[in-house]
Amino acid sequence: MRSFISLLVIACSVGGCASNINIRNADAHAQSGYNAQRNGDWEVARRQFAQAVVNADLGKAEAGGKAMVNYEYGRSLGVTCFWDESEKYLLRSKQFEEDRNHSPYLPLYELGLLTEKQGKSNQAASYFSQLIPLMEKEGLRAKYPLGVADAYERYAFALEATGKFAEAAKNRAEAHTLRAANSEAKPFGQVTPYGSACYKNAS
Hints:
Blueprint: H1 19-38, H2 42-58, H3 63-79, H4 83-99, H5 105-117, H6 121-137, H7 140-143, H8 145-161, H9 165-181
Helix pairs in contact: 1-2, 2-3, 3-4, 4-5, 5-6, 5-8, 6-8, 8-9
Protein name: Tetratricopeptide repeat protein
Signal peptide: 1-18
InterPro entries: TPR-like_helical_dom_sf
């Protein structure tokens, strides 16, 4: 399991390095959040990553660590149907990635999935239109061809839903070409099951 100690770098305040406690707490809550995700308990994951985010902020973690805990908190919020909050924290993760000059393709992909699930086709199309050039720039076509194909396919569906049929057909054809050329590639992973574990008080 990934350790956040290496990512959530301690920033000492004027009074000393008391933030070390917050960094350890962020790490512990993040690990518990990952364990809950593995067990399919997204409500516990949501609560654990909420604490990880708070402690990462209090401990003045570096952008990489903040990007990761905000990303996982955003995903957990979306699975439990806290839609607006989910988008907020995924956008926060995106900003932290950009702040450290890293490609924000992971939060962008999740933002596309999140808005797609809600039937917000215009927003989904916007997110996927930003995502695909980044995936291509990062060389993910070679590393994760089926993931890139999935992004093209989802972009096509979103475009189709907004009446842009010609552009949709072009992106769907690209997805088909990628899948055909990589028929033996391994699946790119499990798609976040947004909306599948709605918390009873979610709005």
